[in-house]
Amino acid sequence: MHKLFKKNMDLITGALLFLIAILLFVGSFFIQERVNTSAIGPRTMPQIVGILLSMTAIIIVVDAIRKLQMTSQEVHTTQTDWRTFATVAETIVLLIAYVLSLNLLGFPTSSSLYLFIQFVILDPEWKKKIPLYILIAIGVAIIIFVIFRQFFSLSLPTGLIF
Amino acid sequence: MELILVGFASILNLSSFLLIFAGVAIGIVFGAIPGLTATMALALFLPITYNMSALNGIVLLLGLYIGGISGGLISAILLKIPGTPSSVATTFDGHPMAMQGKAGRALGIGIVYSFIGGVISLLLLTFIAPAIAKVAIKFSAYEYFAIALFAITLIGSVSGDNLAKGLASGMLGIAFSLVGMAPIDGYPRFTFGRYELYAGFDILPVLIGLFAVSEIFLLAEDKFKKLDVKPMEYQMRGFGFSMKEFFGQSWNAIRSSIIGTGIGILPGIGGSIANMLAYMVAKKQSRNPEAFGTGIMDGIVAPESANNAVTGGALIPLLTLGIPGDATTAMLLGALMLHGLTPGPLLFRNNADLVYGIFAALLVANIFMLIIEYFGLRVFVKLLKIPKHILMPIIIVLCVVGAFGLNNRLFDTAAIIFFGLIGYGVQKIKLPQAPIVLGFILGPIIEVNFRRAVMFSEGKLLPFFTKPISGFFLLLAALSIIVPLIKSITQNKKHVLKK
Asked: Residue B139: left if φ>0, alpha if ψ -120 to 50, beta else—which one?
């Protein structure tokens, strides 16, 4: 089963879309509406979109299966190695942490930390450039903070610490 | 004519000119650096416009738009990497010409014909848009429903390699637009009890997430790939072509500009297709098509005038109907609405000074583009060397600032991460991104007009088909699905027969 999926990405795409379509359709019944409403109400659009999405999902899956039958040779897939996956995963975690920390640490601190860690994550040769990255991270965060506060009167969070 | 003068009067001041200048210069940078796009530039700079007057905000964004579309030619010619999707075809002849030691000539041609394409489309915009607005003012809910539906089917059928995937993306976009209070009766939908979701997702976090934040994940994938960016050497002497050559290209430039404007008017297609199509048409109509790809002038004139011509075209449906032609004009729509302006035929009547101010600003932006890109070339080429792993995180911080500034709440900042992951995810499962944005914008237009129309006709659906304009667009909508479907079926048959 795993190999089959790897062979054709479209199977996953179709299955995912179908799942979203079902969630949309089922979810629409939880939308409140008037009892004596006409045929068309707040539930109509989600239901139509759910049905159409499920149809496109089925077409994508059928297409994918047909392609699998037609081509016996290996369908081209991109090999994702673990290091790449780790870099993406680290970036995702870092971004979430960045947003969550904004209110606590404040924009300048959070952003400096985010920038520095992100540089490190993205550059395989980061060890040689630590001082430079620290300088850029702090500098950029402070410049952005000051510019937006002074010139565009945007009140970015200052945090609970400073 | 009088209105055009009023338009010029409204932007003839230092601050407007400075904003256009800055917009164009920054736009060119975003266009030139591969991976950064005009859409991203607009998304990042929209927050700065919150406190500006509507016109000042819009002219800054227009500058970014014009510069961003044109800047792609620099890297297309010097790096053979299109700076934006709009300059893919520019690499075909631009880079070979540069390889022959004539990089300066290639850049000169690209810059001048970007300008010409922009100006021709602007002329078309100035004359076509008010005429359409006059017709559109009579449109009712039926017509808006039909046009929006046509727009979404067209987007689905032209973007990406696969009709079902394009339409699925559009549907996903509509699905995201359903979050929040339903139109007309205001019942909450898919809010999961969170009050922040009652107003739905704002367009800005959606765009920032899909088009800017998603890029950092793609960049993370390239960590261990060695990408050397070494722009070629070039020498600028004038624009690099003679008057005789200039006049020889007149028809090519005009034809390509008309193609670009036409593609721009059609929703959801945009610069990337205009650029390719104009190149292919120029090649087909040429007396020596085999010379294309070897580094000839025709092969740069066609794609570069076409992609900049898209700008004027895309503004036509945006300003007259409130329907954006591509993701970048979707940003402009967001900007107009932030300033309390609803694009549509009424804009031409109630805010004529603004509309004609936009036209005037476009002309100024095109002129600045010509000047800045020519004289600032050295700087732009230097900027190509900034490592992406330093640039992108800084852009992310600016994204966070922009999202936060929208409503001064962290919820929108979380939303850009969410849509960033969605944008990354759909690219991983090979769905086109642009239909999601258009679906997100067109979904509410489709729904609210559908329900209004049905209320008006007391539940009957027949008037959608019997009203001429609405019926016409519904027919077009059906055709835009059926035609590619038949094509793919016949192609499949051929494929099977070959086997």
From this structure: beta
